[in-house]
Design brief:
homodimer; Rossmann fold; alpha/beta
């Protein structure tokens, strides 16, 4: 993954549902200074409330890349997007994509990139090769977000914790392991796209040696309790060698999403299993808090649930969207 | 991985140490009916005591492939091998290689394969795409060999257990996950070469639904306690959904091989951790025995060690090379 060229012009295609522009909203919310404008096809109705700029105008104002901020049906590249993407390449912008289809597989894009020297970057793929993991400790401190399941706030929690640490004057870097995270950070490793033998080695590379008082806040992936993706989770855990973990959970789930035959662990069991596994490469690892995606709970239910989990676990319990994660940052630094 | 074309002509390059021809010896020992002869360059001194056949002679006698049965320094293809490999392709033999370097990267081999229609097969690489894991149970029964470390007998134990089951009249298939295993079986999945997101899915594919009384004996990889490869091990464990596991161990090791800073777990702890992890996709999993690589122990020491482990764990303890694994097969079927 080369370093991405910011700032971005966010391309919204022709989506009409906000949920299809999740990537675009994530970028706007988490790196507003890196987002210079938005551009859509005439049929598109979703807006990020950013300045509307054509690729040429965005380039003239200093944009580095056109970033595809929407999901495409089936992950493939709609033919109707091609003229806009070619215009962007002709204006000197790189194209940054999280689609399954590689951009260079479209002849018109490959030709335009060759002509202009602009880059086609597929953040979902990993074209880099990595060493195997060493298990050797390295300088600096690390915290990894882990989960009872996929897609319940590990990226969001890591971003919020990075902000909370910086607000306390602590040196902290967000380390991205998934495509939206990589777009936000401008760099990272799509850890689930790495060849299996090199998961831990890629995680070691992602979070290199650093100053003793510097924290890497690493975006977790998958879950140890996920029947398809636990291998990714374990390799990332071992390679990250976290000094601390934050457990992320959504109390509305009782089974793994899309796997109704696989029950979720209890929070206590999840913490025990993550800490047990993480001790292999960092015997001093500890859990410093629980981040809850409480979007399905009303205020009273959330307050009651939170008090109960605090009492059960003796750890700070936060929802990044409801009061932030400073209590977790405080425990991390204690 | 396409089905490999047997029988094989084993190519021994110009090695002078038996240990560099480990693959060749493994093939001769585990699938003698599939090995038609051997061929080496003039400087080679290692022999498998098979008929010496040129590629053309082997093809005339029905060979399907020339199989590279030796390791090459650095995993790359020595230039001096090329004329022999081209002769084999010209004789209509496929070339089967476990080297890191892909055969088709050598222009002379790529040209000869294109000219003759013979295939260049790199068993170390995975060019197939797999679905993500489902975690859904499927018909048939499965036993997986697992280990306290890498390279201590998981393949050997799985092969021996397959033989022991067949000797008892049980339907059993060896399922290969590493390169030598794949060469022996003629098919399989190089599980450590799969993209991380698809490890469990590849393992599900490797061991498909079968008759209720059929056993798949699956070759394990890595170890849950290995700082580089545990992700591969966990994904293979989840996708295999084993009804039973056999723990493999080498009592001469106290730390992970090449990782002197990472201690091995006790046998008891290793079994506990494997069973705990395997329960995610098969709650009925049980450990049915321990396979010991006792090559560093004299007869008296081995007998004493074995008695002690039996007493500690209450499980059959075997060395496949010292008396076989029938006691484990018996417990498996009990």
């Amino acid at each position: 993954m080369p370093l991405l060229r910011k700032p971005y012009l966010i391309f919204l295609g022709e989506v009409t549902l906000k949920s299809d522009a999740k990537t675009g909203f994530g970028l706007r919310d988490w790196c507003p200074d890196d987002v210079i404008g938005q551009w859509a096809l005439p049929a598109g109705t979703v807006s990020l409330d950013l300045p509307v700029l054509s690729p040429a105008d965005a380039a003239a104002r200093g944009a580095g890349s056109l970033l595809i901020g929407v999901a495409a049906v089936g992950g493939t590249l709609p033919e109707r997007w091609i003229p806009t993407l070619v215009q962007a390449l002709d204006a000197g912008l790189d194209i940054v994509s999280g689609l399954h289809t590689r951009l260079e597989q479209h002849p018109a894009l490959a030709a335009a990139a060759a002509r202009t020297g602009a880059r086609l970057i597929n953040v979902r793929h990993s074209d880099r090769s990595f060493p195997t993991g060493t298990g050797l400790r390295r300088g600096g401190q690390r915290v990894l977000t882990v989960g009872t399941d996929c897609a319940l706030g590990k990226k969001y929690t890591a971003l919020a914790l990075t902000r909370a640490l910086r607000a306390r004057g602590v040196k902290a870097s967000f380390r991205a392991t998934g495509q939206t995270g990589i777009m936000i950070a401008g760099e990272g490793v799509a850890i689930d796209a790495v060849v299996a033998d090199f998961i831990a080695g890629a995680a070691e590379t992602l979070s290199p040696a650093n100053e003793p008082d510097h924290w890497d806040v690493i975006e977790g992936q998958g879950a140890l309790f996920h029947p398809a993706f636990a291998g990714v989770t374990l390799g990332l855990l071992h390679g990250s060698q976290p000094d601390a973990i934050v457990l992320c959970h959504d109390p509305s789930r009782t089974t793994i999403e899309d796997y109704p035959h696989i029950p979720l662990p209890t929070l206590h069991e999840a913490i025990r299993r993550y800490v047990e596994a993480a001790r292999l490469t960092n015997p001093a690892v500890r859990c410093v808090g629980v981040a809850i995606n409480s979007s399905t709970l009303g205020d009273a239910a959330w307050a009651a649930y939170r008090e109960q989990v605090i009492a059960d676990l003796g750890l700070p319990v936060c929802d990044p969207l409801r009061g932030g994660v400073d209590a977790i940052a405080q425990t991390l630094l204690a």
